Amino acid sequence: MSVSEIENILGDEAGDLLNYTCKGIPKEDLHLPGPDFVDRVFAQSDRNPQVLRSLQQIFSHGRLGNTGYLSILPVDQGIEHSAAASFAPNPMYMDPENIVRLAIEGGCSAVASTLGVLGMVARRYAHRIPFVLKINHNELLSYPNFHDQTLFATVEQAWDMGAVAVGATVYFGSPECRRQIIEVSKAFRRAHQLGMATILWCYLRNPVFEKEVDYHLSADLTGQADHLGATIEADIVKQKLPENNGGFRAIGFGKTHPRVYEELVPNHPIEYVRWQVANGYMGRVGLINSGGPSGKNDLKDAVRTAVINKRGGGMGLILGRKAFQKPFEEGVQLIKAVQDVYLCDEIVPA
Predict the structure, then answer these.
(1) pTM (predicted TM-score)
(2) Inter-CA distances, 293 with 81, 144, 321, 324, 326, Å
(3) Which residues pair with 170 in a beta bridge?
(4) Alpha-carbon distance 183 to 136, whole Å?
């Protein structure tokens, strides 16, 4: 897909998103994605050679192989959002094999899913596409519903099936987050010992974060969540695309600094993502943004998110429902459209 086609998809926002130059944190201060990212960044860290190999497997696979960018298919929504809510639009994805087939046909860097899904097809596919085993989940069968991440799998089970990475979620800001931090930190330590990479879903979860706007999507709060994720040695952090800023001030808690709002994070979606990237050790811990739920304008929304992520200094997208809630071939094409943004040399960090 050419840059002109991407401009057509973006419509009225094309000029603002494609021509914007960051005024807060300059791109020169970042460790940007590139073909040598593992050598340039992680080879200097405490990760052992087997972790470096696992990371390189992910970075070398699929259509974005050896670019430094990632395109991951995540399908854990059968637990997180219920199987009915997730798969009724396209029941074929009740079959784990179709999930992995979508990732392969879509040219993804990896497929991320549950112990049950990946374990069911591991012998056939673990050597054909990198597996990321999501080890904890929230489930919605408990009544009344509540938000907590519970371990569903062990790191050893991920290693046994041939996964190259484990993924986990911490609901930062929730009453249970301290326990989740301890559990996930221990799991990530064990994953690194066994030679697997680590990906953390750094999500916010607290009803108090919703005021006149939803500050779960605030650049300052999500950025701090990314910083906490980097602290427990997530190799990659997954975060929602920020839509606003000023969560600390609006809610009236924690600590921040006026410079964040007056100088470092101007009011622009690319600047919001830039702040998320900066909180991941200036890009040493790569940022992948989530694709969000499926809606009426999925192609535009997904391409827009990819442009903002790439221009902000991010490392890629982890896009699920927008793809698997569509007919198979349509889902494949949507995934590839997102990848085309990262393959377009004319779109560069702002």
Answers:
(1) 0.96
(2) 11, 23, 6, 11, 12
(3) 202
(4) 10
